[in-house]
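Fold this sequence, please.
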Amino acid sequence: MKISVITVCLNSGEKLSATLDSILGQGCQDVEVILKDGGSTDGSVERWKQENASRPGAERVRIIVEEDRGIYDAMNQAVAHAAGDFLLFLNCGDLLADGSVLERTLAALEEEEQAGTDMNRLVLYGDTKGEKNDVTIASPPEITGFACYRNIPCHQSCFYSAALCRDKPYDLRYRIRADYDHFLWCFYRAKAKTRHMGFPVAVYEGGGFSEKRENKVLDRREHREITGKYMGRGELFRYRAIMACSLAPLRTAMAESRLFSGCYHWIKERIYRRKA
């Protein structure tokens, strides 16, 4: 078994079925699914089990019910139960982009293995489809220090070596950016190889905790603390200057706008293609 897909949930309602359907509908069947439930009281987990009792492949869904202290604690708990060599965290409500995502990812893993890559220090990632604005969010073709500062791939579109997730559990001090902290640790400290696979991995639902207006101050504070932990002062000064000169606030507003986001992401994707 190469891949474990991890979904954490708590009172997720109908979103749970949509996410699990997208995983079980993959052309590649040799994949483990870990459903980590924090103790739902809405009956969503029991309802899914009843409705899918005789479904082919449903036996591959391992349901772990354990109280947790939030999404990152739940993810850490799920890692402890996962048997796969690589892990994908697909949040409840998010979907795999199409039916061939896992099959194509396994092919990429085989290529890396044949090339002699250290498979315990590898992150594969792809693009992300944004459900809210119906756009494709292109990931950077190469991970650099500036990409780490500005625009890492969406967490739901990253396949991590399980060893990376066990060596560095998600830091529960960060309520919003523990996944960002983990990615920077992989790049700066673990010196993991990163590879863009060139196709969309996940459909991101959006509208979560990190995107709420009242959490923007906390998000910026965590970003500042995490980047300060991994990047030197000179590096940070350079990146902040680039962001200021390239009108970062305006670009962010365009990326999130329903009116302009399609055009913005179209242009960004083509710039990335030219750099690849």
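The mean pLDDT is 90. The radius of gyration is 18 Å.
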